[in-house]
Amino acid sequence: MFKIQYLSTKNVVQGKHTLIQSCFQDPSSLQDWIEPPSSYTHTFDDNELFCRASSVPEIKEYPFKRYAKIAFMFLTRGPLPFSPLWEKFFKGHEKFYAIYVHSMPSYRANFSSSSVFYHKQIPSQVVEWGKMSMCDAERRLLANALLDVTNEWFVLLSEACIPIQNFKIIYNYISRSRFSFMGAFDEPGQYGRDRYDDKMLPEVDIGQWRKGSQWFEVNRKLAADIIKDIKYYPKFKQFCRNWCYADEHYFPTMLTIQSPYSLANRTLTYVDWSKIDIHPATFGKDNITAEFFRKIHQDHTCDYNNHPTSVCFLFARKFAPDTLDLLLQNSTKFFGY
After folding, report:
1. Residue 159 is part of which domain span?
2. pLDDT digits (tens, 9 = 90+) for 26-40
3. Can you tell me the distance from the alpha carbon of 269 to that of 161, in angstroms, rounded to the nearest whole number?
4. Residue 189 sits in a domain of what CATH number?
5. How many separate domains does the chain show?
6. What pLDDT digit, counting tens, does each position of 191-205 carry?
7. Which of 146, 160, 201, 171 minimizes the C-alpha distance to 33?
8. pTM of the prediction?
9. Residue 324 counted as domain residue
10. Coiled-coil regions in this chain (predicted)?
């Protein structure tokens, strides 16, 4: 039904091939749906990609054995300096994760065939910080990950992110949560409501305007809702520009309007915004201590499934590349992997 609604929407068909042609060339057998794409390389434009991803089944029970996976989606400019740490984190859990990397189009990764990051780059486009192109890249990651029906949860990360819990803890925390983790709060002043433009009416009024961290985790339903959106996206693309920083407002606002009771209204990624700056603090070698990570693990409180907990963060950023050796040497002691 959604496919019919999507394809009948005006002003969606673009490019050399129509969305109708592309969508209805989708695999027809159950086995074709079950098996994820054998390669991340494809020639779809964004409209074709989103259409195909939107038509992937969204059901709770599947008529075949399925290991529900977390899609780890890396939004990067180029290299992944912490890939050795991530390799250590992923080791032994191959059935329960998938990896997707969106880098600048000109960048070509050089991972060996034994690496978990080998051939994990998706077709990408140029991304500008704070612009709607950042949201486009995130939607591109979600759409590619949705093509694999075994992906149930979707985590957005950067090249400066590290996992600060072991894989089992992170998997259980995300898979057992009744909520998705998207920061979404109403902030007055120049960094919040002052960025709103009343030209967004009637789709978005100022009372619905939200701000949140770019680094999110969403379940399959919300991931599909994000790539299906053709109601709020045009408004943000046209009126959330320059000082608005679309990546901080588009997803939090849209999901708050559509699925307010599905959000935990917080992020799983620890970031230090204590300095007055447009960018968060960068952690260097001096920060790589047991006490530093103890404070992240224990000195915060939050709700998890409506109960208080001190386990609030599963990832952290922003780490300088030269911290890698210390992190690798101490990962068992600090993080349990």
Report:
1. 68-267
2. 555 555 555 666 678
3. 8
4. 3.90.550
5. 1
6. 999 999 999 999 999
7. 146
8. 0.88
9. no
10. none
